[in-house]
Each structure stands twice: as C-alpha cells, then as structure tokens.
C-alpha cells in the first residue's frame, strides 16, 4: 500500500495536476475568506467552509480522474491487479494519495484563524470543527471520484461522472427542501451529505454525522474494491 501511495503522490507533483488543484483551493478559499471575513471584519468563517462545498464538488473529480482510469488506458492495470498485494491495499494507496493532496489544501484553513487573531478574539473550536468537517467531506468526494475512475479508462468521463454524482448529492438537499415536513423529508435529511456538512459548518458536530461520513467513504471504497475484483477475474 505504501509503495502505491508513494508512487501516486509523486505523480501529483511530477505533473501539473497537484499544483493546479492546490492553487484552485487556495485561490477560492482565500477569496471567500476575504469576502465573508476580512472585508466585513468578522471572525465567523463558517460561510467560507460552506462555500468550499461548491468548489470541491467540481474540482475534486479532476484530482481523482486519473487514479484508476489511467492504469486501465495504459494497460498497466493487469500488472497491478496481478501483483502480490491485496486489492484493498491498491485502493487505499490511491485513495490516500489523492486525500493527502486534499489535506494539504485544507491545512490552510486554520491559518485564516491565525490571521483573524491579529485583529480580534477568535473562537478556535468552530474553526477546528469546520476543518474536520471539510476533511470528512473531502474523504467522500475523493472516494466517489476513485470509484468512478475505476469504471472507465477515459479520464474526462471519470471527471464528469464524479461531478455528476457530487451534483446529485447537492440536489438531494434541494429536493429535501421542496418536500413537505414528514417521513420522506426526514429520510432525505438523514442521508444528505450537504445537510450533514451544513450542520457542521453551523457548529453542530455529532457522533452520528461522523459515523455517516466515514460510512459513506467506506461504501465507495468497498465498491471500488469490488469493481477491481471483478476485473481481476475477468
């Protein structure tokens, strides 16, 4: 797993992809920080984290589009699939490499807290809570992107597919809001990634939300392993 992780992580920095993703992350988070915090003299940066949902649902699929589709296109996937390593190790190595790039981007978020502390008293608990929430959200987006990448050899299709699934996640929240109060709305609310993430950005961090995010990540990683397992024995 570590060898795959190291290879994939290196690939992000030997191509423009890793740098482009981080540049986009820093540019948008910095812009939102200026608009919602610095320009109005506010220490509440929950809106920054909430707005990053929209940015990441678009750009994380670009980060993950090559993870498995490139191997399939270059016909190197069979070498990996027949190597003396478990499929779970392959999937986790690739997942953690993309997630490491994402985490490097997220590392800038607490820095904004230090910037605010130079002119106001900052409450650090919401900042750290939002940062953890963003890391959990990133785990879901990366696992979805990895799963879609396992289904095709075309990187662009993998990126579009990942974005489409992420868009469905957002639209689920819109559908929930359009429904009358009742059982169906409660069900959609409980499985809505956006609703769960919005709660975290509002300062509501529950054990159930943590379990939910980790479970969704696990489901998509499991599905990715199943896809590779099917290809290994095809």
UniProtKB/TrEMBL annotation:
GO molecular function: ABC-type transporter activity
Protein keywords: Cell membrane, Membrane, Transmembrane, Transmembrane helix
Gene Ontology cellular-component terms listed: plasma membrane
Principal cellular location given in the protein's record: membrane
Localization per Swiss-Prot or TrEMBL: Cell membrane
TM helices/strands, residue ranges: 12-36, 48-68, 80-107, 127-149, 156-175, 204-228
Domain ABC-2 type transporter transmembrane, chain residue ranges per copy: 2-172
One Pfam family hit: ABC2_membrane
Lipid bilayer topology: Multi-pass membrane protein
Name of the molecule in the record: ABC-type transport system involved in multi-copper enzyme maturation, permease component
Species for this entry: [Eubacterium] siraeum
Lineage: Bacteria, Bacillati, Bacillota, Clostridia, Eubacteriales
């Amino acid at each position: 797993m570590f060898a795959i992780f190291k290879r994939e992580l290196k690939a992000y920095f030997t191509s423009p992809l890793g740098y482009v993703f981080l540049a986009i992350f820093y540019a948008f988070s910095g812009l939102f920080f200026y608009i919602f915090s610095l320009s109005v003299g506010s220490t509440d940066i929950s809106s920054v984290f909430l707005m990053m949902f929209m940015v990441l649902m678009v750009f994380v699929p670009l980060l993950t589009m090559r993870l498995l589709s490139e191997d399939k296109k270059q016909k190197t996937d069979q070498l990996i699939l027949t190597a003396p390593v478990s499929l779970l190790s392959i999937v986790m190595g690739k997942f953690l490499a993309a997630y490491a790039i994402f985490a490097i981007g997220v590392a800038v978020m607490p820095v904004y807290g230090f910037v605010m502390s130079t002119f106001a008293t900052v409450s650090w608990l919401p900042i750290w809570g939002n940062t953890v929430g963003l890391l959990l959200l990133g785990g879901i987006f990366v696992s979805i992107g990895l799963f879609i990448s396992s289904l095709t050899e075309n990187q662009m299709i993998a990126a579009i597919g990942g974005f489409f699934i992420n868009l469905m996640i957002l639209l689920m929240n819109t559908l929930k809001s359009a429904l009358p109060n009742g059982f169906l709305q409660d069900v959609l609310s409980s499985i809505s990634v956006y609703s769960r993430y919005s709660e975290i950005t509002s300062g509501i961090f529950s054990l159930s939300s943590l379990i939910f995010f980790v479970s969704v990540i696990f489901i998509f990683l499991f599905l990715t392993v199943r896809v590779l397992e099917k290809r290994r024995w095809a």
